[in-house]
Design a protein that fits this description.
The chain is α+β, with helices and mostly antiparallel strands. 23% of the residues lie in helices and 36% in strands.
Length: 311
Amino acid sequence: MDDPAGPRLALVLHPHRDLREVVAHLVRWAEAHGVELVVGAQDALRVDGGVLPVPADELADGATAVVSLGGDGTLLGALRLVADTPVPVLGVQLGHLGFLAEVQPNELDTALDRVLAGDFVVEPHSALRIETGTQHLVAFNDLALVRHPGHGSVDATLAVNGLRHGYYRCDALVVATAAGSSAYSYAAGGPLVSPSVGGVVVTPSAPMSGISRALVLGESDVLRLELNPRCGTLALEADGVGSGDVGPGTVLDLTVQPDAGQVIRLNPAVHHQRSRVKLSLLDLPLLPEQLRELLPPDLRKRFDTAADDGA
């Protein structure tokens, strides 16, 4: 594909939400600023005119930035799409209490103006590269091996840099990046690791024997997980997206790709403040009305919207 004459923004859409109104607004903004909009061919029928469909593997070609319309899951999907040729990704928060997406819909025009002017900073994100047989997966938050009820549990041996470290018997095993340590790994009892520190966290959920605590390793470490003969049939998930089942004899090799993703930050201090508030709420056993009173005004409004939607 030829390079566009002017700036180009690539759109990544939430997989289920009706985003025609938001996309139509983006089209009007783009026409007024001489910007070309593209979207993956698989989403071509979900947008009206003014957006050019391109093959998914060409989404990042010539793009000034990627605009993710959804929540954290959509933003993670956008990062995975462009991991081979990293392009700055702007997350527009159309979900609920997400951690990664920064921009609210009413801030969109100002945010796009700043992106076009290059008035932003880039927050680098490391990714897990996972190889198992013919599968090659990318995860910016975590890889999870999860038991199917009635089909056995996780039984896996861990090797680090070619040396056997120990084994796990548990309901689920999560390998997370530092940024992803606040997600599934944290829910399973793992520690929070600052992205500035880096590293990988291996956390068993409901361990029965073997390694029973979370293990923090370096970003340069090479991990291998071998599923032992008595291992059950497990769901393989990358950033919460299912990638089929694995079982005894499967070998998973994991490495970290530093700076595989670039997340646009317009107001880093405000974003980090919001994230700290959201994270602190996860550990508060409060009733909804008590929780609402602790939220700052911007999050309180989104909380009320989520409650009205039944979320």
